[in-house]
Amino acid sequence: MLGWDMSAALAMADALGVDPRAAAELLPVIEAMMVRHLNDKMDAETGGLNG
């Protein structure tokens, strides 16, 4: 997994009433943690054959 569509993530945060400044500050950090976790999980499931 490479990353999230930040435009879509910010639009979703806006639709949920999240302050846009908070979303812009927090989403990149959350994205990085989630991508790292998903990549680690995929590696564990395939024995490291995902790249």
Distinctive features:
mainly alpha; 73% helix
SSE inventory with pairings:
Layout: H1 6-15, H2 20-46
Helix pairs in contact: 1-2
Please provide a written account of the structure.
- By secondary structure, this protein is mostly helical.
- The protein is 73% helix and 0% strand.
- It is built from two helices and no strands.
- Helix 1 packs across helix 2.
- The mean pLDDT is 89.
Q: Average pLDDT across residues?
A: 89
General shape: elongated
The biggest sheet amounts to: none
Spell out the helices and strands N to C: HH
Q: Would you tell me the structural class of the helices and strands?
A: mainly alpha
Number of helices: 2
Beta-strand residue percentage = under 5%
- Total beta strands: 0
Gyration radius (Cα, Å) is 14 Å
Low-confidence stretches: none
- Percent of residues in helical segments? over 70%
What's the N-to-C terminus distance?
Answer: 11 Å
What's the short version?
It is built from 2 helices and no strands.
